[in-house]
Amino acid sequence: MYKIILYIEAFLEGIGRLVSWLTLGMVLVTFTVVILRYFFNIGWIAMQESITYMHAMVFMLGAAYTLRHEGHVRVDIFYERLSDKGKARVNLLGTLLLLFPFCIFILWTSWAYVGQSWQVFEGSQEAGGLPAVWLLKGLILLLPALLLLQGLALFCRSWLILRGLPVPAVKMSRP
């Protein structure tokens, strides 16, 4: 179980750190779009759409990283006052009763939607737009898949804590 936790968290840490660079990319591309539009009267739909693509990637691929770093919203008033076993109980139940069903629901309901886009290699409806809407929609399936992985690691950590077993050290480095 220790190896599972460490492999999952190392994998998601790598994805999160990689995806975090897209925020810099969004700033640079947005700056470029503004300069080109207002100083040179030039506009590229593909460049504008790339900002939307990067934004979607940051949120959908970074959600599991955020969960790993406890960055999602929760009711900290109660959670912070709990013992380690109390927190583990909340995390275990929250993962089983909320996170896993949510992820399965997203996978189930979006499978056909994403599949249709992939069948026709859906592109932008704008002239000069990016031809990879199908890839963007594919992120809809990656979001719950990555969250399920992080949920599994969180579940395993919580299980170990509740059993009184040693838990692998959390390696949380920020970019």
Structure characterization notes:
The protein has 175 residues and is mainly α. It has one domain (2-162). It contains five helices and no strands. It has helices at 2-40, 45-68, 76-79, 84-119, 133-162.
Report the β-strand fraction as a percent range.
under 5%
Helix-strand sequence: HHHHH
What level of helicity do the residues show? over 70%
Shape by Cα distribution: elongated
Number of strands: 0
Mean pLDDT: 88
Question: In angstroms, what is the radius of gyration?
Answer: 20 Å
| Low-confidence runs of at least 5 consecutive residues | none
Secondary-structure blueprint of this entry?
Layout: H1 2-40, H2 45-68, H3 76-79, H4 84-119, H5 133-162
Helix pairs in contact: 1-2, 1-5, 2-5, 4-5
Summary tags:
175 residues; mainly alpha; 5 helices
Quick recap:
With 175 residues, this protein is mainly alpha-helical. The chain has one domain (2-162).
